[in-house]
Write a structure and sequence with these properties.
Length: about 450
């Protein structure tokens, strides 16, 4: 296994990582990129063992509903890079099971890769979402044939791929990019049915970075995002060679979606668990700021907080239903129920803006105008800030301002804006959840009830 420092050193491998238009020489020396690096290194140190055969215990699949449930607190604690590594390896294992009859040649490669990745203690990020060009056209019909990642040439020893995967979380921090087709491919689109593991430092790979991490200002004014941030990337594959032993699907269009479907099983549990926690956090902030403002007992404020509580509790109930109705894969790994997970994700995303509106309505304008913590350091200002930001009864100006900074940071600034979009789009937009819901809902039963109510049941 690697220590945190060994992990950091391992990323100095000639990778082409960019930030704000410049090639990054050293992630650790780049503000905005160094903080996530430290957090991931801490994750390495947390699980490090010097035993020769040790592997990270996190990277194992749940074998029962209870194990699945027990996994949640751990997932919430993991750094995102370890989380997506876990998801990537579980995805490969499940996909291997599903390809067993259809494309058995890939199975030994997949198992060998997973084994080696565990042994080497590497981090792997998930590259599914393509540039996609015109969304109404299939990959093979695009004006630019590279709108979806594709194989441009095949050699005896491997394939050469071209294209880009967008919005990839933590791509610059992993060792390998797990490239998977974003959807089912049609006959004639064989070149787009490509799944493979690409080392980040492969010639031809370029990785951009965007981050909501506060790049200027006092970290105390950004109490959440200055500690927890992870950049998102565009991963460009400019004719990248991938050796055969790292190719897990090449040309089998009928099975192109196996990887994306398998990933969905593991990805959603983390996403929905986070949403449940986020909803409770919004309730907590609303209650604390109402109390600090002296409005906690006013009826319209209480009603808004009640609505937020109901929302948070419904999300928790949805997660619980998804866990209680978990299903085993043929390989004996448990994954949360599709219908309950998707409905919960939909509800969490669709109602998030309303919950934020309630919080902003309750809290007041100081969400965006509270004095900075540096203002509190100024001896001339401090007495005035204590006097005018305090509300009596032991609520100091500093305490109340800290609440406002937390609310601004998580809901009304760069990180807050990132949340608004990410809740909707990550794991697919609202439409994607509606499709799953429609497919799984028992419409026949609902229709029978309708007919009965109308006196039309036979
Ligand atoms: C912060 C963040 C992190 C992410 N991390 C990752 C990651 O690590 N790995 C990864 O692979 N992806 C990642 N994603 C990508 C995410 O899965 C996509 O953003 C999402 O699937 C939507 O794709 P898109 O952004 O290209 O938008 P679009 O596909 O353009 O979708 C925009 C809207 O158009 C609708 N739409 C598009 N095409 C159609 C169609 N043919 N029919 C009907 N409706 C359509 C969608 O439903 C949506 O409502 C991340 C996204 C975000 C925001």
């Amino acid at each position: 296994m690697l220590t945190g420092q060994e992990y950091k050193d391992s990323l100095k491998d000639g990778r082409k990582v960019y930030f704000e238009g410049r090639l990054v020489e050293d992630l650790g020396a780049t503000p905005g990129l160094s903080e996530p690096l430290d957090a991931i290194a801490d994750g390495y140190d947390k699980y490090y063992s010097s035993a020769p055969d040790a592997v990270n215990p996190v990277v194992t699949a749940p074998r029962s509903v209870q194990e699945l449930r027990d996994r949640i607190p751990e997932l919430m604690e993991l750094d995102l890079c370890l989380n997506v590594t876990y998801q990537s390896l579980m995805t490969l294992l499940v996909a291997a099971g599903r390809l067993e009859n259809a494309a058995p040649a890939y199975i030994p490669r997949i198992h060998a890769y997973v084994e080696q990745a565990r042994k080497d203690d590497i981090r792997i990020t998930e590259c599914i979402t393509d540039a996609k060009g015109n969304r109404s056209l299939h990959p093979g019909k695009q004006e630019d044939p590279d709108a979806y990642v594709r194989v441009v040439s095949r050699r005896d020893d491997g394939v050469v791929i071209r294209g880009a995967k967008l919005h990839i979380s933590a791509a610059a921090y992993g060792h390998d990019l797990m490239v998977m087709p974003t959807k089912t491919m049609k006959p004639g689109e064989e070149d787009y049915a490509i799944a493979c593991a690409v080392p980040v430092n492969s010639p031809g790979v370029h990785i951009t970075n965007t981050t909501y991490h506060p790049l200027a200002g006092d970290p105390r004014d950004y109490p959440v995002s200055s500690h927890h941030s992870i950049p998102d990337s565009m991963c460009i594959f400019d004719d990248v060679f991938v050796p055969n032993e790292r190719v897990f699907l090449d040309g089998e269009t009928a099975h192109a979606a196996v990887f994306a479907h398998s990933l969905g099983l593991w990805e959603r549990l983390g996403g929905v668990s986070f949403m449940v926690q986020q909803a409770d956090e919004l309730v907590g902030l609303a209650h604390l700021i109402a109390e600090a403002n002296g409005t906690a007992k006013i009826s319209h404020v209480r009603e808004k907080i009640d609505e937020m509580i109901i929302h948070a509790t419904l999300l928790r109930a949805g997660l619980e239903a998804a866990l209680s109705n978990a299903h085993p894969t043929p390989e004996g790994y448990y994954y949360p129920d599709d219908m309950f997970t998707n409905v919960t994700k939909y509800q969490g995303a669709a109602q998030f803006n309303l919950m934020v509106r309630h919080l902003h309505d309750i809290a007041g304008g100081a969400i965006v105008t509270a004095p900075s913590m540096a203002d509190f350091d100024n001896p001339t200002l401090r007495p005035f800030l204590d006097k005018y930001m305090g509300t009596g009864g032991g609520i100091s100006g500093e305490y109340r301002s800290k609440l406002f900074h937390a609310i601004r940071d998580t809901t009304a600034d760069a990180y807050g804006g990132w949340h608004l979009v990410t809740n909707l789009q990550s794991g697919g937009g609202l439409y994607a959840q509606r499709l799953v819901t429609r497919k799984n809902y028992d419409m026949e039963r609902a229709r029978a009830l309708g007919l009965k109510a109308a006196g039309l049941a036979s």
